[in-house]
Design goal:
single chain; about 350 residues; mainly alpha; 13 helices; about 85% helix
Length: about 350
């Protein structure tokens, strides 16, 4: 009799070991699938943001006018494309000419910057470090991997627009399909979470566009006052790249400083200070006011998410790391933090 009990307990222990092993195997398989498909998920997120923009603009028009959803959604989509086409028609030729001029003169600007940096000991050390980094094999390999996209640049943009259009036309179809995967007892909570995610992304996107527009206006005013050449293209670049926190403003400042350095080192210093001041105003005044009703994302968390997601997916990960971390925060808050607070 004791032998039978010992055999039964031993069988139970082995069974538990198998269960634990299967769980870890399942987790490993899921992580491998996630790593292999993470680039696709980022593209889906980008398409979702496009749908949030069109749907959010449609809701704003509907609240102001009381028109039907089909009418306001058509105005939202067609109006956006018409406005973009009008802007391109008005300033497209000027921006294209200035961008071509910057591209043609960029090697000369680099040489002028090197000559200016050679005038000081710190500048010479910076040039030496850059030359060592450029001559090493790690930098080209890193850049090629970082800027490599899933289906190529045009292919990724096409997929993002296609997903965005489908999500814009019939979001409930995909939302309900996702909710059907949840057990019936949890579907009400799942619907609340998806609505919270949609609202959060829409508000974040609206605040981001307000901040981008403010950065464009402030940069344009500052560059006009400084009588900088190609100010329009530089201001548009600053506004667009402001969509990417931390790294975007730095990337926008580099060509402006190089162009100013061709004028004089003093002008370059003033331009650098101008960009820093504008970013300080944007991060401390404009952005908090634009997103004051949104979940606050710690700045350090944004940088860490850009580093980790960027290392996995490249340039798209850096661009869309902030909305991704916003989604994670909302999910943790709705599915874990709030239920735990309600229990206590």
């Amino acid at each position: 009799m004791p032998n039978q009990q010992e055999s039964g307990s031993q069988y139970t222990f082995v069974q538990k070991v198998w269960i634990v092993g299967l769980i870890f195997s399942l987790i490993a398989v899921l992580l491998l699938i996630l790593e292999a498909t993470f680039n696709i998920l980022i593209l889906v997120l980008a398409g979702t943001l496009i749908a949030c923009f069109f749907r959010g603009l449609s809701s704003l028009i509907r609240r102001k006018t009381g028109w039907s959803t089909k009418v306001t959604l058509s105005i939202s989509v067609l109006g956006t494309f018409l406005i973009m086409a009008g802007i391109f028609w008005l300033i497209g030729a000027t921006v294209a000419a200035q961008a071509s001029q910057i591209e043609d003169t960029f090697p000369v600007l680099i040489e002028d910057a090197q000559r200016s940096l050679n005038g000081s000991r710190v500048g010479r050390e910076i040039i030496e470090q850059l030359e060592e980094l450029e001559s090493s094999e790690r930098l080209p390999a890193f850049l090629s991997r970082f800027f490599m996209t899933t289906f190529g640049g045009i292919g990724d943009i096409y997929i993002i627009l296609l997903i965005g259009i489908f999500f814009t036309i019939s979001p409930n179809l995909y939302k309900n399909g996702l909710i059907q995967l949840v057990p019936p007892s949890k579907r009400k909570k799942a619907r609340e979470v998806t609505d919270h995610l949609s609202t959060g992304l829409t508000k974040w996107l609206a605040g981001k566009f307000i901040a981008m527009l403010a950065v464009f206006i402030l940069t344009a005013i500052g560059l006009i006052i400084l009588d900088m050449p190609m100010w329009l293209t530089l201001a548009i670049l600053a506004g667009i790249l402001n969509f990417v926190p931390n790294f975007g403003p730095l990337a926008a400042m580099i060509p402006a400083v190089l162009i100013a350095l061709a004028i004089s080192p003093t002008t370059a210093l003033i331009v650098a200070i101008l960009y820093i001041v504008i970013q300080t105003i944007e991060s401390s005044l404009i952005n908090p006011q634009a997103q004051k009703k949104l979940i606050k994302i710690p700045p350090a968390l944004i940088i860490l998410s850009q580093i980790f997601v960027g290392a996995m997916t490249g340039i798209w990960g850096v661009i869309f790391a902030t909305p991704l971390i916003l989604i994670i925060i909302i999910l943790v808050q709705d599915l874990y933090v709030d239920p735990m607070n309600n229990k206590s």
